[in-house]
Amino acid sequence: MVFFGYMVFSIVFGLLADRYGRWKILLISFLWGAYFSLLTSFSPSYIWFVFLRTMVGCGVSGHAQGLIIKTEFLPTKYRGYMLPLSQVFWLAGSLLIIGLASVVIPTIGWRWLIRIASIPGIILIMAFKFIPESARFNVSTGNTQAAMTTLESIAKMNSSAMPEGKLVEPILEKRGRFADLLDAKYLRTTLQIWVIWLGISFAYYGVILASAELLERDLVCGSQPELESEVVVTLGDTEGSQSPCHCHMFAPSDYRTMIISTIGEIALNPLNILGINFLGRRLSLSITMGCTALFFLLLNICTSSAGLVGFLFMLRALVAANFNTIYIYTAEVYPTTMRALGMGISGSLCRIGAMVAPFISQVLMSASILGALCLFSSVCVVCAISAFTLPIETKGRALQVLLPFVILLKIYLCCPVSSQETSMEEETVRRTAF
Q1: How do residues 24-64 score in pLDDT, each as one tens digit?
Q2: Residue 280, φ and ψ in degrees, nearest 5
Q3: CA angle 226, 373, 87 (to 5 degrees)
Q4: Which of 319, 197, 218, 323 is nearest to 264 (CA)?
């Protein structure tokens, strides 16, 4: 249900971000997510718990606008290096929540875990005064003065001088339209991106949930899984809120294993950065997706506990590299007028894969481990082929501002002169169109 909320509002926030600005939607999503996350800890029943977590998913779906703002500010040559480094902060959050869970849940319970986990989101709201609106978005809406103000503050911060001239841009009334994603130039790219997003999410959350399942069932070579015991999980203080479920509480060793496998998400980051910048986005993604398919199959090999942890470690590293690459590619391939919507719809389809993953990694895996792992592997193979055949390579490609064949953004690189003093051809030479 968290992913369902994310799926619905990812499209909504993407549409609104292309029309009203990335900064506003990012702020709203942070306020929304922090508020409902905190409310979850006061859930009186399981139904309320599910509903409030769904609302959290709605809010979190807007966080992708932060990546778009960063993408639209970064120069072309630095995007392939700086964007993957964001994974370090994702890793820090993952490690923090696992560490907190190992201490908080056995002592004061899950409610306090959620309350403590809500604190960073609340604190970060205060940092929004330091985050500017995307200058590219402002220019695309005709708000050139705001864009100039932002660029001037950046130049001042870096002790640099602004180039002479001014920004000239007709106001674009049609922004964030779904039909633009299916334009002839982007149709094939869009469809293949959607397949890749769905498959990567399916594999990513499949790895996470399968890790917990494999550890809980103690599925290592020569071991016998213990019989399941019934544990009553209390969500509230009344008898009606007690819900029995068949599960095992994690032992300290299980938390340590989760931490080790999570650290794997950063293990391939240096290689991922090199691959993105030297091999290109398409080839790099196809290689990591192919390797992901292979390691899913290797999980079925009879191995020791250390071997299982090693396979999970590599899988987490590979699926994280997949997400790194597709995030960068999606943000780069679409023009400014529909970049947020493209990312939003991709994120929405991504959650479909996330919603399906538990039924495979927990339900199907209980019946057939081989069947579940083969299904995950097959999906990764499809994604690898789709990535390899993407029609557009964005390595070294400047961010597109407008739809093809329509040049609207004109930046004067030197002082404009009167049309009476120069011919149309000479005036055109004075402009650089992006």
Answers
A1: 889 998 889 889 989 999 999 989 999 999 999 888 888 88
A2: 100, 165
A3: 100
A4: 319
